[in-house]
Structure formats: structure tokens, C-alpha cells
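ok so for the tutorial part 2 we go from a plain amino acid sequence to predicted C-alpha cells. step 1 is just haveing the sequence, like this:
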Amino acid sequence: ISSSSKMLLVLILISSASALNNCEETLLDNTVCPVNLHNTISITPRVESVFECQNLCRQVHTCSHFTLYTLTDPEVSSCALLRSCNTNETTSCSTKPDSVISPCKSAVSGPRSPTIDKSCCSVFENRACDGNIISQLFNVSSPTDCQRFCKESEGCNYFTQY
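step 2 — the prediction. this is what the C-alpha cells look like for a chain of 162 residues:
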């Protein structure tokens, strides 16, 4: 592998919360919107990123929200496209069995718009984060892998790949 094709992942513990507020308003971490017969448009298995799940929602005119969740057994990520997401009816992702969704390892829910990159990432364009580097990994092949490594690393809120 040539050095130009190698990727570097830097996991960062951010001390500043300026961008976090926009993301928290857009994305609900560890939250499952109501997935039921009346609210669910479709469920697509093997969707690996929240960006991909939101993009699926944006392609369906009746979709206003989505939930990306990963089950514990088997460990498969799925994207639920939803008509609405009343925050009074959401549940936390839990490893305990539920009547609607099997035990889940992780979940994130959000609206059709604004797009995640506009609400969460635009503040980082042409900027460096002011935070503590908690880990560096080499030869990481994709942003999806970077996101997964960050999610699995305690204290990681943001990552950069180059």
C-alpha cells in the first residue's frame, strides 16, 4: 500500500461543545423513535451509517424521521424510515427485549432535514478541533470505519480521517 493511499484516523475528545449543540438538536443518540405498523414506512437491513439512513429517508417523500439501530443478536444495523417521531414516545436503545425491536446495541434517530453534514459538520470545515487526541489508528479504509472506531472508543465525540 502506498503512503498516499493510507488513511489516518484521529479520535478526538472535544472540550468545546459549540458544535455539539447543533448535532444534539438534529440527532438523538441512543434513541429509538416509534417503530410500529402505523408509523413505519420501511426497514432496510445492513445500513451502516447514519448518513446513509438519512439519505434513504430523504428519498421517500412521506418520511420525516429515521432511526438507525444495531441489534445485539445477530449484530445487524437497520434503518427504519418513519412518518414521525414524537419525542414523548421514543425509547432508549436497550439490551433488554422489547415488544417492537429486539435488544439493540446502539441507536440514533433524526429528522429528514437538516442534513447531518449541514447541522453537524459544517462548523468543522477548514478548521481543526480544539481537543485532546485520544487515539490514532493507521490504514483505516473508510469514514464508516472511522465512525465505528470512534463510537467504540470511550470519550470519543469526533473523529477526522485523512
